[in-house]
Design brief:
single chain, alpha+beta, three-stranded antiparallel β-sheet, 7 helices, 5 strands, globular
Length: 155
Amino acid sequence: MNRKRLENGLIRHCAPTLAGLKSASLFQYFYDDKGQAIKQIKEVNQLLNGRGVYVDTLQWNENAVLIYTYRFHHVQKELENPKGMELLMKYGYQSNDVEGCIINSGQNCKYCGLWKVYCDEKEKMQLFHKLKKCSEIYLQAFSKGRRIEQMTVCA
């Protein structure tokens, strides 16, 4: 198993975090050999930690692991605010959408993109477009040989 597959998953699912547009991203990585996956995650952390980005594992399953990629100082700053909504915002959710989700019990959203939108629909659609465009640019650059550490913006 080669580390490029893990890096491709990081680029595909975490490009906005690597670019500094989001504090954190979450994705499921499918592996063939757990020992190799652990080794590759350590190697990726060696490449990215100096740029302020960390890759942690949250849940291991038989052939997959839930990976949390985050900018430590951004998340730390967001967690300094004691509100529960701030905790959700670390995953990229906007506070007014968290409030709308709570009030509406997850129903009646105006738009469903990377998260459910309850207000400022036009603004959120523009943000979703920006994050999608970031992912497309990163995937294209990676496919042309650009290295993940070259595309990771320093904190």
